[in-house]
Amino acid sequence: MANGKPPRLAFGVAAFLIYAFMYVPIAVLVGFSFQxxxxxxxxxxxxxxxxxxxxxxxxxxxxxxxxSLQVATACVVVTSLVGVPLALALxxxxxxxxxxxxxxxxxxxxxxxxxxxxxILLILNRAGIQLSLATIILGQSVVWMPIVVTQVYAxxxxxxxxxxxxxxxxxxxxxxxxxxxxxxxxRTSVVGSALLVFTLSFDELPVTFFLTxxxxxxxxxxxxxxxxxxTPEINAIASLTVxxxxxxxxxxxxxxxxxxxxx
Amino acid sequence: MTEASxxxxxxxxxxxxxxxxxxxxxxxxxxxxxxxxPYAHVGVFSFWEKDLYSIRPAFILDNYAxxxxxxxxxxxxxxxxxxxxxxxxxxxxxxxxxxxxLERYAGRWKTLLFFLLIVPLWTSFLLRAYVWKIILGxxxxxxxxxxxxGIQPDDIGFMLYSEVSIVxxxxxxxxxxxxxxxxxxxxxxxxSYREASADLGARPFQTFLDVVFPLTVPSLLAGSTxxxxxxxxxxITPALLGGSDNxxxxxxxxxxxGAAFDWPxxxxxxxxxxxxxxLVVTTAAWIGNRVAEGR
Lengths: 263, 295
Prior knowledge:
The complex is a heterodimer of chains A (263) and B (295).
Chain A: H1 5-33, H2 50-57, H3 59-90, H4 95-110, H5 113-126, H6 133-158, H7 161-169, H8 174-203, H9 206-211, H10 218-228, H11 232-257
Chain B: H1 3-14, H2 18-45, E1 49-50, E2 55-56, H3 62-69, H4 71-105, H5 110-118, H6 125-136, H7 141-148, H8 163-188, H9 191-199, H10 204-232, H11 236-241, H12 249-257, H13 263-294
Antiparallel strand pairs in B: 1-2
């Protein structure tokens, strides 16, 4: 079979190079954040933590950070409150109807996000709604909704309906069945997709770009800093952001891959 | 509890209840108001008219005529299509290689390496594009390292602020989009398929071509489609890494909604992007179905 030495070696080398391609840049990003001089240049001559210290004195940056945390939290709340019932409802409908609905709900994930952003800008503008953090939350929720719906719906499909039937047979009403049987079975997919939505929302730029009023989010702030020029300060924020994303993602993925156990 | 009422409850659960109907209706309203209506409205807007400082409802084709008549816009659309095609092709090859390695040869490292594949997918797009500015930029890492060997930035000018740097950054961002679904498809193929093919005398490469590859085509297509659509409509990477000649269609759209303040024309360009995306998605789905049926 194909387990011979030459293909194994060739694939091993190729995979090593591709992983290097994926991870060396992150190392570079973090490395330059510890550089003393203001101008990024190689080789790094002196190391320092001054750019991290500078972050904590940057008022605008801290405000943007707080705004981003608010937006991400609100997006999690909105997508969970709308997305989970949506997934639950999908289960009870005809296959073709579900397929059509699913495809439409998925659209914002495939359409380049800036199109979704400007589309929502246009309807907000028509409705005479001022841009603010709330409009960012609306736009991002539309974009991240498919993640919650598809993750929860996938979990629901693998859930044995007999369990819910048994619960009803044993005298539980619909609400009790939901809270004692259905919800525990989909819990990890709900929490997992919530974590991913939080991470994605925290980093989102293209949709936010169109829907930002006077208050910036962190990616918008970084974007405006980048227009002026690149500095180790950006690398310091970037390193912290990437670190936070990695931690949240690991937690989220673990939950999504875990098999739920029904109590 | 009697058996009859148990069965009744079961039936009651299986039948859509009032709550489910309400949820379903809410789902429809959600899709109509927040997805269908906004996208459709972009279409309507693309026929509107821009006066000096105001935008008027109308039904004119001027915005589309402008796209076709001015060489600039066709040139930029061509740029975007070419960049998206290169990115898709390279990401597909690299992603497929990675998926095959993970499935066949990663052994006990499989779980860890799979995690390493997913993590970048969820980290900031902006920062992953930005990092290439540090690496490929005029005073960046590569020109710094080469400078130590006496090579001037001008000698490697093709890599800085060019189409090449945009493609590199986008491939960097999108490799996992192909690798993950292909890996999932490879994992689903029962070992017996390969064994049967080998028993019938097929060489490993032939088995791959005739048995394994066709089974991964739908996932490969799904991943590649997303890569194509998202890179076609990206404005961040060209803004950070492109030269003045490398702008993509999304940059022009943003200009129309910003300084140019020509929303109807921006909408017409957005419709071009939407139509391209729909065409690619539909074609990919059609090819996927053909391959699935052909087997």
